[in-house]
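Teaching assistant's notes for section 4

Start the section by putting this record on the projector. Ask students to predict, before seeing the second block, whether histidine kinase will look compact or extended. Collect guesses on the board.
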Amino acid sequence: MIPSFPFEQMLGQLPAGVATLVGPDLRYGFINDRMRELVGDGQPGQRVADAPGNLPAVLLDVLPRIYADGSEYTAKACTCGPQHCYDLAVQPFHDEQGQVAGLLLLALDVSEQEAARQRAHELALTTRHLDARLRVLTETAPLMTFTTDAGGMVTYVSPQWYRFTGQPPTIDLTAIWPLLVHPDDRLRVLYEAEAARRTGTGWSYEYRLRRFDGVYRWMLSRALPEVHPPDAPVFWHGALTEVHLARELSEARRRGEAELRFLADSIPELIWTASAEGLVEYYNQFTIEYTGLTKDELGPTGWVGLLYLHEQAAAARRWVQSVASGEAFEGEYRLRRHDGVYRWHTIRARQLSDANGPRWFGTCSDIEEQYRLRQVLQTQYDELSRAHHNLDTFVYAASHDLRQPTNNLRGLFEELRRAATFADPEQGLMLEMVDNALAELDKTLLDLATTVRTQRQQQEPVEVLDLGLLLEEILLGLRPEIMQRGARVDVNVGEAPGLRYSRANLRSVVHNLVSNALKFSHPARPPHILLRSYLTPDEEPVLEVRDNGLGMHIDDPAHPVFQLFARQHAHVEGTGVGLYLVQRIVGSQGGHLAVSSTLGEGTTFTIYWHTPAGGF
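Reveal the predicted structure now:
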């Protein structure tokens, strides 16, 4: 037997709001729990107009008309209250005589569905906006975009493609685009595109595409699949970028590098290139032939390992400093040939910075013959220079010192004229002849000294000198003495690298000071000489020569420093002329020579050069 349930109990369990409005006054009859969310505190017997709850006003307006004409009414997604949305339906119910007895009001909560619909609507609007924005970006960018499907059919190309190829928009893209690819590239392009679609991957390759004027231009084609796991890709989206100029530049660069490499291999000189870190990456063919080693045997530091053993450490330090600072590298070193013979080379390296970053380009030039000739010439020059200065000094000193005896003789003859008489009738003539002879001798000596002084000043032209290079030349001439005594010579001219002065005079000054420092070195320690140039606060150039030798008496009158033929260390061979000449040369150009010394510890000479018009 089927159990029976009261009708109102069944309506109360419905998942929708149900209420009856009875009589023409539309008074509440039955109200289930779901309908309470709408009618609020409305109770049976109350008019709906007096207790509408959250029922929309538009519904309250139509309820009397529905009751009057017996029609039905439906309202979708009506907002009822601040948070809910309902589908509302109203239909009349009749009494036993068939007359409208009231209205049945049904309400279904569709708040979640309406919210989802609203979100879907907003998402659709956003998608349309993004799609429009993306289309604007792709159709204004300087490249051609496209879309293909898994079957290779082209479903979209941007307007740039039509403008580039000159094809009409009505053309069959899938059929025409392979025909626009250069015949030499066509099969490769079709194969690579098909392989990418088959494996579900992207592609990136270059090919030539025919332009509207019939000219083929290199293009870069790149595409990626649209992936929606776990399904296989259906569409590939990509872009075409013209790379014709870049490709031509790359080809030209490759040809240029090949030509430069051929040229470098043809030059009979050691040529190499190194990375930004100073590691050698390339040797020309002549380097291989000269050293007798392969590129692998030479390695990234090849030329350093080929240097004379005692020069390797200093050269490596200089090379590391150049790599760190970016400054040019240059020096003269002995380099081992394939037969084991060491020959002098000038090693130079310069840094080049471009789009690929810094790189080093270097050469090793054989200067063995020039080096030996320079040594011979330097020796001869130094000998001639010393002879010239010695002769010059002797003439000047002799002319100066002989004037005093001449003056003494003149005084004696003057006294003789007053105090003595001679019976010789030619007395007057004889005395006059003696006076004339003494006067002539004095004039000759004075003219000789003036001539030497003037000649010194006129024969030495003034020029702008590279102080570092000139000091290197002087030290090269003194190399045998330096090596014999195991001396260490440091040169620091970075603060004042140039000097406007006479080359010969500067050579003479520095040569005398350095040779004296070597000659008067302390027997208990190896000589250490520092040559340093700098600027005074008044921008005046200064050269400082410092040694750790025997030292001198500076303020002792019995041991003069700059007097001609004066000597403080008689046990050391010398003439006592060098410092005298240095002072004369410096003073003749308006400069000043200062000396400070501690006996047994060393001496420092400071030369304050005169700055002529034109500056330093």
